[in-house]
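User: Sequence recovery, please. Input:
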């Protein structure tokens, strides 16, 4: 209860600062899979429109819980369709979600790949510390377990799994912090810190499902028009260019080059794969 009260207080302070500009803020709950481009896009949108954007970023599962508990927020941008489907199930969002960008699963290693990890099957090696995000609350963790299971590797690598961190941002940070040797993450992580990380692409048949970042207006939105404007900006040529600059794919045809036979959308429970 105390944590809930502190969270509501933080939201109030952020919103007060945004209102000080004279425009109603757009309050966004966003999985950190989109963190660098979304932060840049929010700043560009605010400069263009003078409408402040307040970003709450983290693991999609935790953010969904915050939306349900507080009733706050104008826009929901989870890290995958899994948590958008949950938001729809809980009757939290309005209309049909919009696809903002696509994500490609990959093995993330230190710059130069010092341990010579070449393919998914190399994760069988006993000397590797393998990092993943928490599959019970973070999209990339769920996809990691799903990939391991689909390729008959889950039981073989389970003893070497480390981390179970709470967000994509923390998963990406495990490599620069030398907490693990390899992270099962998004290819885009390497573009966040190209001086410290490389991405090893998986084989096309190894990716069971396409990953993408959806966005939708929250039913309890206090600034629905501002939220619609920001979502439209994210899918505009200018907004999409920001995502592309950060290494994200912005159309399905490009994403399918990495996984032509992968399923699209659908929802998997971590308990089905973990």
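Assistant: Recovered sequence (274 residues):
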């Amino acid at each position: 209860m105390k944590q809930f009260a502190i969270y509501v207080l933080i939201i109030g302070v952020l919103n007060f600062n945004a209102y000080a500009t004279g425009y109603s803020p757009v309050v966004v709950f966003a999985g950190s899979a989109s963190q660098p481009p979304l932060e840049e896009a929010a700043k560009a949108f605010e400069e263009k429109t003078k409408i402040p954007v307040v970003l709450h970023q983290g693991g999609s599962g935790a953010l969904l819980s915050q939306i349900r508990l507080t009733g706050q927020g104008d826009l929901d941008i989870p890290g995958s369709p899994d948590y958008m489907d949950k938001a729809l199930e809980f009757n939290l969002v309005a209309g049909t979600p919009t696809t903002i960008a696509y994500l490609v699963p990959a093995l993330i290693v230190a710059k130069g790949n010092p341990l010579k990890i070449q393919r998914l099957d190399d994760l069988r090696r006993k000397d590797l510390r393998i990092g993943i995000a928490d599959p019970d609350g973070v999209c990339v963790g769920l996809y990691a377990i799903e990939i391991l299971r689909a390729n008959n590797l889950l039981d073989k690598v389970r003893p070497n799994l480390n981390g179970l961190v709470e967000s994509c941002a923390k998963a990406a940070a495990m490599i620069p912090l030398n907490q693990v040797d390899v992270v099962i993450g998004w290819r885009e992580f390497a573009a966040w810190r190209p001086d410290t990380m490389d991405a090893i692409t998986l084989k096309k048949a190894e990716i069971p499902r396409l990953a993408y970042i959806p966005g939708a207006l929250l039913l309890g939105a206090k600034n629905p028009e501002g939220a619609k404007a920001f979502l439209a900006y994210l899918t505009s040529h200018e907004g999409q260019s920001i995502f592309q600059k950060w290494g994200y794919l912005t159309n399905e045809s490009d994403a399918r080059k990495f996984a032509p036979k992968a399923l699209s959308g659908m929802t998997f429970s971590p308990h089905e794969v973990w």
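The domain at 105-208+269-273 is CATH 3.40.190.10 (D-Maltodextrin-Binding Protein; domain 2).
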